[in-house]
Write a structure and sequence with these properties.
f41 fragment of flagellin, N-terminal domain, 464 residues, 19 strands, 9 helices, alpha+beta
Amino acid sequence: MRINHNIPSLKANSLLRKNNRALTKSLERLSSGLRINHASDDAAGMAISNKMKTQIEGLNQASRNAADGISVIQTAEGALNEIGAILSRMRDLAVQAATDTNTADDRETISMEINQLNEEIQRISETTEFNTKTLLNGDIDNKTHTSNYNMKVIYMSDGVSVGDYNLEVLAEATKGEIPASEVLESAIEEQEGTIYINNKAVEISRSDDYTSVLEKIRSTCEVVDISVESIYDQDTDSRQMIFTSNNFGKNAKIEIKSENIKLLKAIGLENETTSSQGMDASVELKGFPSSATVFADGDMISITDKDDFKINLQLSSGTEQGEAKLKLSVLDAGPMQLQIGANESQTMSIRIPKVDPTTLGTKFLNLNTNEGANKAIAVLDEAINMVTSIRSSLGAYQNRLDLSINNLDTSSVNMTEALSRIEDIDMAEEIASYTQKDVLTQAGTAMMSQANARPQTILSLLQG
């Protein structure tokens, strides 16, 4: 028997402390309902659960974002519904104005109502908002800008994407040309004055004959990039000057003027101004409406679809007949981006085209004649079809968002279930563990008391 070290008491104390720590942890788990309260409880499990919590919160927020998107669409669709009703009324008025039983005053009255309805469409376009964001003014749509002399904002259809396209110009652009009338050489004699060719002066004196006048004109035309050709007609013994610009498109300008009308007539010209545009071109862009028309203005290609949305493309090289490389660049992307996922770039684009009297084509309806009223009916039919098409697109957007919300909610529930398996405590199992630790703690306390009492038996030996 030893009294210097009470080994049984030390062992009982160690086990008692261990059971107390386990009992404290069990109490914490039962109180919080969580299996992992500290990183030390399960380091890997805590790392996984934190990521899952972030994903769950992201999924829930994405679901709310999608619901907000539906609210935006419903707001726009409601406004378009009203615009559609207005267009139907305008069509009724156009049909009414198309019959010749109406007097001029009757048609004027109808036109007044049409104007008021157009103003209401404009008001709806400008004031339909969601969270201060205007919906029908074209801001929620793709747009790009041309940086040429004729700058304007143009709209892209949904089917056209940014990139390189090949365009085939089927005919060369034309050059500006002025053919003068045939004149006798003697007609120029005894005429004097100043002719201005593209604002460059040509001085003609009485002593100049046809040849000298032609040379003076040629010298001046070279400065302004114009060619002059003289054609001689043997049958009539007359000559004709033909002025041709060496430029294409908007730059192909020839302006010939003079205060001396007799001098111009003597040369075969009167005050003349001409310019030439480029020829029609044909282009195929994947996804662009089949009804699109294309027009080339110099080195600028303008594509217009049936809804009057336009895309201007810049030719990068040449205007001769053949193929040219085009690049379409979007400088300002305007679609509304909805974050409908928990992670980066999980977005959905919503485009709502500009809807007002200008884009609908109803701004300048003329109902004062039978012909004008019939044209108005056709325009209004197109406008109604346009609004219907936009509403159909919005309906498709809304259906997609509904499905996205369902998927997001399902994903959130499933991930929460997985998180629960990692993080939550099994209460029944933990209560059983707690009961065990509690009994062991009580037993340990009793046994430690017994271990501490054992050295007292040695006193009886000393006393005996």
